[in-house]
């Protein structure tokens, strides 16, 4: 019997497989703990790992054990209560027991919750797992970077791993038949002549020997044709075919007017930070356009969008005009999936709200895949919300949510971008 000895050194990640198996097995409990942990996070630690607590009762597993039933004989040393022949009473309760629970007991025994450390990648993967951009479709061929390998017949050269055995043998058989055909035909004629010569006495021995030599020679020539040649080999040919890409652009529109105080701007920045992290992690071909506005709107970069201190009055239509012009100039709907996320406190110049409604209905909403409006106010809704409600009645892909405080950011975000069942 062979004996195998594994002398490989233990790797530092030797428990990685067991770790992933544990995450898959208790995924529901971990996801619930991740969701609860996100509610207490700040803008500075959104991209870190997390310690999650899983109740010990959720980790219990069924076990099999032998009950106390049946007949058995046993000798217990030091027994002073029973003698041979006495009948012992059956113990109260079940025979087996599962994992312990986390509740208090009068015996002073219990189990603490199980604490599990999630890395940054594991934490973000669990949090963003069931989120997606709604209504994302494959657009026309624009920036062709995706290719699909498709079969394109056969070639006489290629990788040995791609050799087509059946096609190669068919080619070899056809070649052998073509090259050996002249010898086979002459061989058949010589054999027929030899049979006729032997059937008509007297037999001409010299002629018979000559025919026999021709037959042997023709058989040798026919056998000399190789069974398979490099010329016969055929390989599966594959070519890369361009595929439509899922290009998408997200317009992030933030109100930085004077009515947006520091606390409200901080809530808006938290929401957009979470959105930006989600987009960059889950989608490769995505562009993000940042627009800030007060009385005047302008397109800015990421740094200025999150950290600029510019402020002023409130004219929301300026941002919508700029967004519509940018969409028409750089992002045609035939090639791009367009998304919009807008955050404001809803406090707009009264005469400007109807103009915002008209711009949305005519220039923006019919051409976007999804529009999400977040109003950051603990008070009653402002005039902008009332105008946007008219847009929502006509377009089901226009979503509106209200955020009162930091605890509402993550539930609202997950509700806006949860995976829809098609």
Automatic annotation (TrEMBL):
Query: Which segments of the protein form a coiled coil according to its record?
Result: none
Where do the record's region annotations for Disordered lie?
85-111
The protein's matches in InterPro entries, at most eight in alphabetical order, are given as: UPF0229 (IPR006698)
Cite the record's Gly residues compositional bias ranges: 92-103
PANTHER family of this UniProt entry? UPF0229 PROTEIN YEAH (PTHR30510:SF2)
Q: Which family does it belong to?
A: Belongs to the UPF0229 family.
What name is this protein filed under? UPF0229 protein E4P82_08500
Could you tell me which species this protein originates from? Candidatus Competibacter phosphatis
